[in-house]
Request: fold
Amino acid sequence: LINGLEPHGMQANVTEVQEVSILQDRAPALVEALMEARRSGRGLALTDVVAMVAALERLILDDSVALLETAYTLNDLSVSEPLEERDLHEVLRSYLVVFEMGMRGNTTDRRRHRLIKQKLERKAAESWQAIVEFEQDAALNFDYRQRQQVNPF
Reply:
């Protein structure tokens, strides 16, 4: 799930696309245009829909990059340096933990973050197992796709 784009059932009283929180928080002009289109009864033209999708894509990308940078920082790693495989797994797990907790949590306390991950791992919580499996699958899928793109010559 993408924060702010949860299914309507997970948000209280959300009945319209302009009520999605990521739009309200990060793209108020877009929300205003959507509301105006609704009030006028004309709906959205294809170009309006394309613009909305492009704006959402950019918002999601920006949030994802910020979250990934936070995951690097929480593991004392630089985004400009290559990662060893072990570090890659730690960064991906941190990304998923922070995503699950939300950016509203403390995203600067490295020690606390490590303790949270260690506690989850020790307890062998279902949520930790799901995080580990998801990140390992993502890494393996990336490796598999890269294998197809390598030039053998």
Summary: Confidence is low (pLDDT under 50) at residues 1-19. The two ends are 40 Å apart (CA to CA). Residues 45-149 form one domain.
